[in-house]
Specification:
alpha/beta; Rossmann fold; 5-stranded parallel sheet; about 20% strand; globular
Length: about 140
């Protein structure tokens, strides 16, 4: 089964890729490397002995997302980690954050809903919503 991991070269994304590959899934990563590096692929290979398919795509480019899903019509699920999360920067550049975090989510969902049914997981971190006051 083929799974797309957006932001798959980031910390959480790359660890998720490792677990998916070790569980037998075929993984495709989309990452624009704005907060990561293609060198992470070497680490994934060192752990799993498999190199996932990687496409360097900025998810703000709607046509590139559309083209990606045409070429990978057999994706059965998407795990979406590609979002900006630096609180200070988000206050300084709110429109950039809206564009990156909302538009990219919308573009992904538009493509996912036009194809065959697939699973979608949207993930965030406490950087976005803050630390819990109580457990």
């Amino acid at each position: 089964m083929k799974i797309l991991v957006t932001g798959g070269l980031g910390f959480i994304g790359s660890h998720t890729v490792v677990e998916l590959q070790n569980s037998g899934y075929e993984v495709v990563i989309i990452d624009d490397c704005s907060n990561s590096s293609e060198k992470v692929l070497e680490g994934i290979f060192a752990i799993t002995a498999k190199t996932p398919v990687f496409e360097k795509i900025d998810l703000r480019e709607k046509e590139k997302i559309r083209d990606f899903f045409k070429r990978h019509a057999d994706i059965k699920g998407t795990i979406h980690f590609a979002a900006s999360k630096a609180v200070g920067e988000s206050v300084e550049k709110p429109l950039l954050y809206y564009e990156n975090n909302l538009n990219t989510l919308i573009y992904l969902l538009q493509e996912i809903t036009t194809g065959k049914k697939q699973s979608f997981i949207f993930s965030s971190s406490c950087t976005v919503y803050g630390q819990a006051d109580q457990m």
